[in-house]
Amino acid sequence: MKGVLLSGGTGSRLRPITHTGPKQLVPVANKPVLEYAIEDLKEAGVTEIGVILGHKGREEIQELLGDGSDYGVEITYIVQGNPLGLAHAAGCARNFVGDDDFVMYLGDNILKQGIAELVESFERDDYGAGIALQEVDTPEQFGIADVDDEGAVTRLIEKPDDPPTNLALIGIYVFSNEVFDVIERLEPSWRGELEITDAIQTLLEDGHSIDSHVVRGWWKDTGKPEDILEANRLVLEDNHLECAGHVAPGATVDGRVDLHETARIEDGAVIRGPVSIAENTVIESGTYVGPYTSIGPNSTLEGVHIENSVVIGESLIETSGKIVDSLLGRGTNIGRADDELPEGRRLVVGENSQLKL
Amino acid sequence: MRIITHTCMDCRTVVSANELEANRVMKCPGIKCENVLRFADLPADDREFFLEHAEQYGL
Predict the structure, then answer these.
(1) Which pLDDT value is given to residue A169?
(2) Which domain holds residue B23?
(3) Nearest CB to A76; choose among B13, B19, B22
(4) For chain A, which domains are there?
(5) Which residue is closest to A75 within chain B, CA to CA?
(6) % helix, strand, coil for chain A, step of 5
(7) Is the CB of residue A122 less than 8 Å from the CB of residue A104?
């Protein structure tokens, strides 16, 4: 079994964060989203992984993952170039996959339980494909699977007006090698892409059984800023957090805090977990870091109140204002304007930024 | 749809035909790979098919 990890896409819904890097490298609990996928694949016994690259962020992704040895896996890069659809991405991996079956994993997905059960379920029988599903409240907004009593998929419907189930495709699949011949027969859809749902539907029509596995626990597509915050909250809630850094005697630390060994919490700072603080970051006196916040590396926070937020890193935050539900890109600096005249906020804001003042 | 790729013989990085065609001659995008990849490295029938169906490949 091989792995195909999709790491292309423009990340348009995460602008301006993705103006300077790929969406798959946005950190959740101080770890790039893509690393969670690598860990899930490895945990499922998949150690030969093809990473699909689009136009954006190729160098950054290769710089992070390298040859995979840091993660105990072997990585081959596959340059898709133009975004011609998920089935095209899979098709580009044909030579890499060879005669094996493969897991296809969207690199901006993150899920609690991993994919081992999905892979095991697929391997129990002679399936053409296996798809991960999750129950959703708004099935009309998703690709939906109709399944029989044994869990076999009977049809797929894209964003149905009258959904037969609430089981949404979450973007993680296992495919038998037969899918490559099916992809060769596909034609681009109305949006000019080779659709993976068309490939699965064709496998069904060719008489292949399609396994389904309903994912327990949470799942997030981290495509939007609010999704990153939600994923950050879910991961911090679940993960073991280790406080290895320096906590000054006069600091207050409640709850679970992941403090890197080179990070410091100074006298007079208050931290209420779950919180993650990365390397070389300093939380100065008078700062409050509230639950579900991740502060990235090489940052200094002084006097600010921040909660339910992600600071990606390399930041200096000194404002006396309160920051909540925020995603701050790398190198963002927020000073204080309390003593400046004329009174008012002073902003240098990039394209596609979103502020509520 | 026929999907055409080329595999770098030095580092095994796979590059799709649309990427090769867009660049014609390119340094292999693999990590620290110095190999040069060319659209002309593809078999003649792949090149011909690709150019005849260029609109499918987003060109």
Answers:
(1) 92
(2) 5-57
(3) B13
(4) 2-225 (3.90.550.10), 240-334 (2.160.10.10)
(5) B13
(6) 25, 30, 45
(7) no
Task: Looking at the complex, report in whole angstroms how far the Cα of residue A194 sits from the nearest Cα belonging to chain B.
Answer: 8
CA distances from A304 to A148, A236, A324 (A): 54, 21, 11
Interface ipTM: 0.93
Nearest to B5 among A92, A183, A184 (CB): A92
| Residue A285 backbone zone (phi > 0: left; psi -120 to 50: alpha; other: beta) | beta
More confident residue, B48 or A12: B48
For the entire predicted model, the pTM comes to 0.92
Which DSSP string do the residues of A45-111 spell out, in sequence order? Answer: T--EEEEEE-SSSHHHHHHHHTTSGGGTSEEEEEE--S---HHHHHHHTHHHHTTS-EEEEETTEEE
Counted domains in chain B: 1
Measured CA to CA in angstroms, residue A288 lies from A281, A313, A319 at distances of 14, 17, 12
Cβ distance A92 to B18 less than 8 Å, yes or no, reads no
